[in-house]
Amino acid sequence: MIFKKSSHTAILVFAASGKKDAWRKGIKGGDVLFDTLTDQTVALASKTGLPYFVHTEKQQKGFDFGSRLSNSIQAVFEQGYDNVIAIGNDTPHLKLSHFKQAIGNLEQGVATIGPSQDGGFYLLGINKATFLKVENKENKESSFSKLPWKTSRLTCSLTDSFSNGLVLYKMLDKLIDLDASVDLRAILDYSLSLNEIILQLILLLVESDKSIASNSSVLYLIKDADVYYNKGSPCC
């Protein structure tokens, strides 16, 4: 346990079901992987000792991604919390240390962004006052729910909004989100420091997707439940 349960911070795991995620992202057979990623994310949230809420498509309300996330964050604030850490389920390299940094920052009144390599973000730590300031702008087109979600401009737009509102924030490590089948290879290239089950599921998906395997100089061999990873000659 990292922080006392009396903390005014709660965690929001914002994720669709594995079946829905795999369909949306065009990853054939990826439902087990996404369900496992959700389980890993929830397990990490639990280890912080803080209260957490899981919002799948059953709990999410809104007509697009921005409104659904905004409504879910607002719902957690309405439970009486001052700070919310919103996290997805599609970042395999997410660690407990990322939660720890975000919690510590929020305790100091500092927002936290975990940027993704595609320009989005995998984690957002924000307090209620900042959220309301960003969401309730006079110019509704630049409010939180109207940020350019699902684009490479998302993190820049959010940091601009924070800067314009004189909001202090810190950035975490830049990680890779799993948004499409091509990201499977990128995740392995980034680092093999993954949960063993998640690593094997990714390797199986890469092996089954010939378009990924044929464009890769990396050999992925799965045999008798053992995983072998060969990046080839250092000269390559």
From TrEMBL:
InterPro entries: Nucleotide-diphossugar_trans, Trfase_1_rSAM/seldom-assoc. Signal peptide: none annotated. Coiled coil: none annotated. Transmembrane segments: none annotated. It holds the Pfam family DUF2064. It comes from the Bacteria. Gene3D superfamilies: Spore Coat Polysaccharide Biosynthesis Protein SpsA, Chain A. PANTHER family: GLYCOSYLTRANSFERASE, SLL1095 PROTEIN. This is Glycosyltransferase A (GT-A) superfamily protein (DUF2064 family). The lineage of its organism: Bacteria, Pseudomonadati, Bacteroidota, Flavobacteriia, Flavobacteriales.
